[in-house]
Amino acid sequence: MDKKFLLAIILFALLAAGFFHWQANKSQPTIENSAVQTNDQTVAMQTAKNQSVEENLIEIFYLPHPPALAIVEKIEPIIAEFPNFKVIKYNFDDPASKKKVAEYNLVNHYPVAIFIGGKNSFMVDGNAVSLLNFPQGDAFIPSYEGVWTYEDLRKILTSLK
After folding, report:
1. How do beta strands 121-124 and 127-130 pair?
2. Environment class of residue 133 by beta-carbon count within 10 Å: exposed (0-12), middle (13-18) or buried (19+)?
3. In the chain, what are the domains?
4. Residue ranges of the chain with per-residue pLDDT less than 70
5. Distance CA 10, CA 98 (A)
């Protein structure tokens, strides 16, 4: 293979990886003033405004792809520990979910987004936690790793029961 062609392929791959990393990180939450914010309109702030959401309602938004589905399967047993919560799942690709996706302003590419009582941002052990993207330590794509863990989800549900 020609060295210039190989160099061009490597350069293209690096640029593509950089672009995807940039896109993923611009939608990642940043912690400022104990609030979780995003670069689009603050997902955490807009969640329950002017909505009457059941306090014990868990809404799970997911991409219908194996990595995201695996996360949903792993959180289901955690949620099952708290039978007082009702769960509704929304497939991002299902046209029937579009209204709810728009209601929560989920305009970025999130593999998983979890809302509890209309909120997706919580304080856990003094840290701001937003239930967006893959949980820490279980990200299929590292740039889509969120700022939450399975244990954070359990602690949030424990505090709300």
Report:
1. antiparallel
2. buried
3. 3-160 (3.40.30)
4. 1, 5-53
5. 38
13: which residues sit within 8 A by CB, 6+ positions away? none
CA distance 121 to 101: 17
Complete edge-to-edge strand list for the sheet that includes strand 86-91 = 86-91, 57-62, 112-116
* Angle (nearest 5°) at CA 25 between 41 and 89: 65
Task: Compute the distance between CA of residue 57 and CA of residue 13 in angstroms, rounded to an integer.
Answer: 42
Query: Quick check: 128 and 137 in contact, CB under 8 A?
Result: no
pLDDT value of residue 1 = 63
Q: Which helix (H) or strand (E) holds 72?
A: helix 66-80
